[in-house]
Sequence to fold (558 residues):
Amino acid sequence: MSVDAGHRTLVGVGVGRGLVVGPVAKAYPSPVIPGGGGGDPEQLEAAFDQVAASLGDRAAAATGALAEVLAATAQMAADPALRSEARQRVAAGETPAEAVDRAIARFVDMFTAAGGALAERVTDLRSVRDRVVAVLLGLDEPGVPPLSEPSVVVAADLAPADTATLDVRLVLAIVTERGGPTGHTAIIAGQLGIPCVVRTTGAMDLAPGAQVAVDAVAGTVTLDPGPDIREQARARRAAAVALESDTGPGATADGHAVKLMANIGTAKDAERVSLLPTEGVGLFRTEVLYLGRASAPSHAEQASVYGQVLRAFEGGKVVVRTLDAGADKPLPFVTQSGEENPALGVRGYRLVRSHPELLDTQLAALAEAQAATGTTPWVMAPMVTTPAEARAFATRARAAGLTLVGVMIEVPAAALRAQEILAEVDFVSVGTNDLAQYTMATDRLRGELADLLDPWQPAVLDLVDTTARAGLQARKPVGVCGESASDPLLALVLVGMGVTSLSMSVGAIPAVRYALRHHTSAECATMAAAALAAGSAAEGRSAVVALLHEDARETLGV
Ligand code: PEP
Ligand code: MG
Fold:
């Protein structure tokens, strides 16, 4: 929608739960290379060095996921292959600014073509390009200007390096024209609890200083918001404070317990999350430890990391997922590069066919961490398709000395045969991100197909319901650890089906806890029936909204 018509609203993809109002602060754009290029060939290496050093300093000053992504961006600026290509281009007659621009453009193309986690790094690559070119041309470093008042930061895209320079106390929200809900901007905004709207068409047409309302739930940016929206923002803030004041265990209004747990990727995450009111870890994505490496981490390194995670939740519940490489998480030393359909290829548990030693090392390291900490981990395999695979995994895990063994239900075949799978293992956890992808035959990375990928799709819910019923029958736990668990409305539906635990990014827990606390098990079951009976995702959601208690509708902002 246009930004100069009356009551203008831009639409993007929201991340988080906030609704805030404030003035726009626009990020400095990328440097434009003048005709004929520019820069001194002698300064090429020094420009890369300067940018690598400045990003490295910022990484050292930052913490958590931010520090990790900044360090990774600094590494890109130091990458010998990138520098060598730029040098060769200068030697062939290009100006340094052009050479850097074109060399990085080629890397961007390669990363984009590779897809998945590599494609998510192109924002970082472009950030390195902008910074090195700015140094070569003697311009200010591009990025966000220093903020003097609480502001809504608007940018074409934000690299981690940009977010690192922000005084987060003055950032009300972040709005970007590009990026995606699983990109770095969204992840870091989520970590910092800043409402964010990405893929917002027309965001860069917003004028600096203009008043906007950013609604992370609706995924909207409204220019010149009226008193009604400002009042809603006040109410949402008060609701958020109220939501966070309840720190008890997850349960419905009639006291039916539902564990509310966190998804993590690193030992640092575990330490941070263990200080917050959660009931453990429902998904530890161990592949994060393997990403960006030339070979697998050693048994000793893994045992140490798993030990740190178990220690952070001493005696509590930690669900460790074995390596989920392939498709959107390629690993150079494991995955087959020539696969035509990597999402349907040798990924997740299927890697045991070609690399059994990877799984066995991981299980042995986890068993060692169990012995060292005295905390029993729950271990599960990703992308299991048949009961025979579930049995084979359970046999391997038990042989390694692990006693709580499960599998993920992410493939329709596994959901349809959940009863037979549950006969082989102690628990299952539904990965609705992949289950939706495979049920709806829709690539989870294709933003433009998000309507098909919607976890409210009745066909996806049918498969979750089949799995939950199998769990009730077998009297074994059925968790959900895909993104759908973080939607408070969908959480009610899942619990109504019989799901016993929900795992999500830690910031989503208060709203889910609140939704459960304000509805009985019987009401959840009615909501589940309504969502399953709906003709479409949108109809299902509306039916559940209509069944919500009035005060919950207001507090949750739906
Ligand atoms: C899922 O597929 O829902 C899931 C939790 O696993 P991942 O997102 O890591 O593939
Ligand atoms: Mg998955």
